[in-house]
């Protein structure tokens, strides 16, 4: 049974586990530094499909299938699927759900979706609303470019602050179990807007939301950055990460060397032409499910604060001169369940 | 604490209440038969805003403000906001959430969003994940036409099966209380696709999902249509409603005269030029929050199955030749809490 602590944080007292997880990527991810940790990588970013949207459906479905396979569970055992993506009307997730036949909660949290879905899955299992939940999300470079910026054929030039949408997906199966990684606490974010209007600089638009959520978490739990091995943001990229660290310094929580960003980890910016780093729902999802969760499982990382961030604008709101609102949801992932720590 | 019954249904044993609710509409809703039950109606569908998207933000915010006001609660007391809408990247809900500062779960369930948000709010309160939640959604005729079909200026002709997107919003505040309406049970839907590809006939695309969810609910709870005063679908319209009733007849659950559809109630099809009836997230939401909930509160209606339905396609998936997947989530609303009935 979850227990509220402070203003905005819930302790998941039973500490549900991520019993299965998988990460899927394509060409750009395959030449990145985390390639060896992915469960499935393809040289063909179309995955043999006829449209980029269908390719994205393929990769999200693949991640879910592999996550189920890795924990020996069947889709019929799953009580709920929490999923969303970046495309208009979240079609990747809807068409994946059509094939799965699992009761489906469609989400929209932009690039914060991996956090949003994982928080809900953890809360549902902890409070016995469900026994098994899937949390998943995906993004595809080509479908996202068409959706948010220009069709690839146009060859639009990208500013140095722009990020590269990850062609990838991550999926987690959450259930009660005595094996790490455990979900220990969640802090659901509020929408924060510092007035950034440059859609070529999403990191800057999302950084204030990340700073706000994690500051609230530290206050609610009376902990500090040093209590964790890693503070992992979703896809702030180079520009957003620097801004996030500066905001945290100003808030009295200097992060020193324990902050890293999935957008900076998935690609090698010195060799790959990805400008300010990776982005997209699939960025945080695939880095979490490839590189991070196994390290928590084997206790190399003991306590991680995972916080995917989302920029909640649309091309229409941007054209109408609106600024970009951001959101960030936080999950405390641990090698130990809450109860064990308390003893 | 929720209790699973059958395959897909959860009984909300503590039976949370909808302690506050409000419905907002515009010009077309003001000349409809339910006008007298709305909390706020405007002759100006722009609500004084410069763009249709900003008008939709205004109306969703207004519904939430009125729902809070009617139960004497403040937004600071709300633990979570569950909201979504039809626009790309769900901007109406995101920009409303920016003003509210309530921890925000962004949803995408197309026109099923009122059910999806209300189910989550009920499950959260029942399992003590939250004390107070807001469930809300909205749609706007003009922003939806631009999004899904043609800009209004184009003057595209609509087929007789087409429905008219409601310019409206509904919001519910859910909490523990001893006053009706109570949330007694929920059945979360799976995605169902019968292969309909005509985006001018969404009712037909959604009807199979509604039939599937409610059949599952009857099986899970061992009840039948006669046990309820009203079975209320979201926005199947004229064509979809006939199809839904025929499917239910075939499934062995003839609905006789207890089925109605929000899309057929909100407008007078003999006087208003709305073709097959109303649609949009705001249709089910505003009919529920204007006409239905007060009747449950005063026990004129004792047991209602509310089921908003969503069509999960996008213009892109349609252009790519994909069929339209549908989803429907069911809520059992009652004048009595679960415990009282059991005694």
Walk me through the topology.
Two copies of one chain form a homodimer.
Chain A: E1 3-5, E2 9-11, E3 17-25, H1 27-30, E4 40-41, H2 52-70, E5 80-85, H3 91-100, E6 104-106, H4 113-126, E7 132-139, H5 141-148, E8 164-165, E9 168-175, E10 182-187, H6 202-221, E11 230-233, H7 237-250, E12 259-261, H8 262-265, E13 278-279, H9 281-297, E14 303-311, H10 315-319, E15 326-334, H11 338-342
Parallel strand pairs in A: 3-4, 5-6, 5-7, 8-13, 11-12, 11-14
Antiparallel strand pairs in A: 1-2, 2-10, 3-9, 7-9, 10-15, 14-15
Quaternary organisation = homodimer
Distance between the termini of chain A: 17 Å
Indicate the proportion of strand residues of chain A: 15-25%
The number of distinct β-strands of chain A equals: 15
What fraction, in percent, of the residue positions of chain A are helical? 25-40%
Cα-atom radius of gyration of chain A: 18 Å
The biggest beta sheet of chain A is recorded as: 7 strands, mixed
Shape of chain A: globular
> What is the averaged pLDDT score of chain A?
96
Structural class call of chain A reads alpha/beta
Largest interface: A-B, 55 and 55 residues
Order of helices and strands of chain A: EEEHEHEHEHEHEEEHEHEHEHEHEH
Low-confidence stretches of chain A: none
Give me the number of helical elements of chain A.
11
- Main sheet strand line-up of chain A: 1-2-10-15-14-11-12
